[in-house]
Amino acid sequence: MTSAPDPATDVYEGRDGWLFLIRGNNRVLEQYGRPGVSRATLWRWRRMIETRARRCARLGAAYFHALAPEKLTVYPERAEGLAFDPARAPALRLARWLTASPGARAWIDLAGAFRAQTGGPPLYLRTDTHWTHQGCLLAYRTILSRMGVPPRDDLEARRDQTALSFSGDLGRKFTPHRLEAAEGTGIASEARRIHANSLLLDMEAMGRGGDAHLGTHAVFRNDDLRADPRRLVIFGDSYAQHTAHSPVATLTALFADRFREVHFLWSTGIDWHYLEQVRPDFVLCEMAERFVIDLPPQGIRIERLAELARERKIMGADLPSPGRHPPDAPASAPATAGAAPR
């Protein structure tokens, strides 16, 4: 059943109960219209990606930039009855702006990869903004291919595929919650977390590890002989993040299973001081497509982001329900810092 868009809600229900984020802080649906994401913003993104690639090269690292595409970009036909132009998707427009740019070498076209696979198993959960295991696996393989690193070929044999009753970040906006049956995404792996910053540890001690978002910092080590011996640093958001919330699949868990060492920093801004200390082989910025509407702040430090997040979440200014993963979080620093567009 298809419902008409309701101006009072952030969610649109399309065909067969598929839910789509259409509003929120980042005004998702507007980004598919005109003017959508401004030409000036796309130009600044082009220049930022070029600069990041050059700076990483000076540190001996290869930089890659990937947008986690919106469900509207990948499955426009399932948003039946919703007026928007999928050809105006921010990921597609930014890819065009990078044509003939030095930054094109850093660009990973997840939108194209996903749109080419829509005839197979679902790549997104019906009630959530995030990927199924198949969607995450597609992103993982696409990114590794651009890095020139072969994926592990035994992931399916090590995955817990137990079916679960699940209500995602969009499904929980309804009363009663919208449910779906979804397979688990956890894999048996030799990867182990060897560092977590105080924000993450404190949130976990409160039983709210799933609410540790912006400012979270974790490091994983994998001593499996089959692990690639190189080091990867990820600046990302909930599509990568520090842990998998089965059945929501996340990239960091898969990369930690592939590389000897993976560092995850929940930020779409780059902490250059951290990269100078760590000296990785690869740097990946992963971010939700909807965050293209604003540029992240310059000169971020992960410790400062963590302090700001602690003030909001632990000192009582921001107390979401346990296990909630906001589908429309700001792409940059908390508004309380006065340092970031949302």
UniProtKB/TrEMBL annotation:
UniProt domain AlgX/AlgJ SGNH hydrolase-like: residue ranges: 11-148
Keyword Magnesium: no
Location, primary (coarse class): periplasm
Record-linked Pfam families: ALGX
Source organism, top-level taxon: Bacteria
Subcellular location: Periplasm
Family matches, as InterPro entries: ALGX/ALGJ_SGNH-like
Region annotated Disordered, chain positions: 316-342
Keyword vocabulary terms for this entry: Alginate biosynthesis, Periplasm, Signal, Transferase
Pathway: Glycan biosynthesis; alginate biosynthesis
Low complexity composition bias: residue spans: 330-342
Protein name: AlgX/AlgJ SGNH hydrolase-like domain-containing protein
